[in-house]
Design goal:
With 386 residues, the protein is an alpha+beta fold. Helix content is 22%, strand content 34%. The chain folds into three domains: 107 residues, Beta Barrel (conserved putative lor/sdh protein from methanococcus maripaludis s2 fold); 89 residues, Efflux pump adaptor protein, beta barrel domain (Elongation Factor Tu (Ef-tu), domain 3), CATH 2.40.30; 103 residues.
Length: 386
């Protein structure tokens, strides 16, 4: 097994790199400017100063987790902003914020002359339609006996079609008022309408007062159903490859940090937030009936990784650069390659790697950040020379 974590010491002692010998011929040393852009060459003085250590990429069982943040939420269909079907005055408000309501329960009563007018127009249209249906039947019979002109039959057909469209439109408006068209008669017109709860839930907002005129484009009452509570988590792009549907998760509420909830990943979004470089992960909650869970609460969560053996490196080998990581692979005495790395969680000081690397390959660990500084300085020096 390859030895790990041996320290570079002195001018001649380099772990698996070189041995004591005559000094290198300066005429044969590789010029920094000749190096590929992703490499860095250290001098013997730098090797002694940096005190680098190496370790190999090995298969290890990583059963760690990915830390993410998010909120408790409900499906979109479990939230409602209820608008009046027509502009009207608020005659009665029967709920307040936080109240539990049942499906079909009256939330508010509205009144306006337009409510009566819609019913009247519907009954008129319905009566006219009945007359035109009978007239068209007579015109068809006369046409068969050639007792009427084709023009008269066409006009009767057009009038009937227009009346059918108008009646259907007004019928839909009556239904939108919550009135059953089949039960509507000239003697039982309703001067007000009731706003009913479409499902069981909690009142989240009441945006009006008694007597207030409310337009059809303004929300009057907010309603929330807490069924199917879930967590919406923000996963960084670099960790996407380590998460899949069915993966176990656990989380805590930021306001109740001592209690741990469990669940599993149900859905992973297909698009990234272009600014934050995150993707939404939808997770089911095993304890969704817990009264402490409420939509909008912030959570800190861990997406649990399996315990299978994966290629990994010590955490010291990974240097964070922005939203990602880099590591330095040993190539030759004093020569290292800078490699962008994709990670998939960590445990006990080791980080699982998403990308393919050679098992047994050597990487800088302790002191790796000094290699990053040397790599950055290389370009600063070359820029100054030019």
């Amino acid at each position: 097994m390859l030895m790990a974590t041996k320290m570079y010491k002195g001018l001649c002692l380099l772990l698996l790199l070189t041995a004591c010998g005559p000094a290198a011929d300066p005429d044969h040393e590789t010029e920094k400017s000749d190096l590929p852009e992703n490499q860095v060459q250290l001098s013997e003085a730098q090797l002694e100063q940096f005190e680098l250590q190496l370790d190999s990429a090995q298969l290890r069982k990583i059963g760690g987790s990915i830390e993410v943040n998010g909120i408790i939420d409900v499906p979109p269909q479990n939230r409602s902003l209820m608008h009046p079907p027509v502009a009207a005055y608020v005659q009665d408000l029967r709920v307040k914020v936080g109240q539990v309501v049942r499906k079909g329960q009256v939330l508010a009563v509205l009144e306006h002359p337009e409510i009566l007018e819609i019913q009247r127009r519907y009954l008129d249209a319905k009566a006219q339609l009945s007359f035109l249906e009978r007239d068209f039947a007579r015109q068809e019979e006369l046409a068969r006996d050639q007792a009427t002109a084709a023009k008269q039959l066409d006009k009767s057909r057009a009038d009937l079609s227009s009346a059918q469209a108008l009646t259907a439109s007004l019928k839909a408006q009556v239904q939108r008022l919550g009135i059953a068209p089949a039960q509507l008669q000239a003697t039982n017109l309703q001067s007000s309408l009731q706003l009913l709860a479409p499902y069981d839930g909690y009142i989240t907002s009441v945006e009006a007062q008694l007597g207030q005129f409310v337009g059809a484009d303004k929300p009057l009452i907010g309603l929330l159903n807490k069924e199917h509570l879930h967590v919406e988590l923000e996963l960084y792009e670099r960790d996407l490859g380590a998460v899949k549907n069915g993966q176990k998760l656990q989380f805590q509420l930021t306001n109740v940090p001592g209690k741990v909830y469990t669940g599993d990943v149900f859905l992973i979004a297909q698009t990234l937030d272009p600014d934050k470089r995150t993707i939404n992960v939808h997770g089911h909650i095993d304890q969704e009936d817990d009264p402490l869970l409420r939509p909008g609460l912030f959570v800190t969560a861990q997406l649990l990784l399996g315990g299978e053996a994966v290629l990994s490196l010590p955490e010291a080998a990974l240097i964070r650069i922005g939203a990602g990581f880099v590591a330095f692979r040993y190539l030759a005495p004093g020569l290292f390659e800078r490699v962008p790395m994709a990670t998939a969680g960590s445990q006990k000081g080791y980080v699982a790697l998403q990308q393919e690397v050679s098992a047994g390959s050597l990487w800088a660990t302790t002191g790796a950040y000094r290699l990053e500084a040397a790599w950055q300085a290389r370009f600063a020096e070359e820029g100054a020379e030019h």
